[in-house]
Amino acid sequence: MTWMAWTLPTAIFFAVIAVALSVLIVLELERPTSMSRGWLPMATTRGDRFFISLLGAAFIHLLWLGLTPWSAMYASGLAIIWSGVIMAKG
Fold first, then answer.
1. In whole angstroms, what is the distance from residue 62 CA to residue 24 CA?
2. Dihedral pair phi/psi, residue 25, rounded to 5°
3. Alpha helices in the chain (DSSP H)
4. What's the first-to-final CA gap in the chain, in angstroms?
5. What's the rounded Cα separation, in Å, for the pair 84 and 54?
6. Number of C-alpha atoms within 13 angstroms, CB side, residue 14?
7. Does the CA dihedral 74-75-79-82 come out positive or negative?
8. Which helix (H) or strand (E) holds 41?
């Protein structure tokens, strides 16, 4: 496991993703999702919106780190807001 720097932020990142996927599995078993259309240009399921929010969060962080000298914590806050909007309205 020496090929990757396992720091606390890295462990938190993967733990949050694992918990989110677990919550999505439980939600799917309790209340199966159906295709719905929000303001995204396609009908999506809960899992689709989660995947889109993860992709968006990755791009937000890449742009933030490439274009600004500020802390990545601001990008994380922006990504959380982005994910909330996509999951609720997408």
1. 26
2. -65, -45
3. 8-30, 46-67, 72-89
4. 38
5. 11
6. 7
7. positive
8. none
What CA–CA distance (Å, rounded) separates 71 from 73? 5
Question: DSSP 3-state assignment of 82?
Answer: helix
User: pLDDT, tens digit, for every residue of 20-76?
Assistant: 999 999 999 999 988 888 888 889 999 999 999 999 999 999 999 999 999 989 999
Q: Binning pLDDT at 50, 70 and 90, where does residue 1 land?
A: low
| Of the candidates 61, 58, 54, 42, the residue with the CA atom closest to the CA atom of residue 83 | 54
Q: Which two tokens stand for residue 23?
A: 């919550």
Q: Is the pLDDT of residue 3 over 80?
A: no
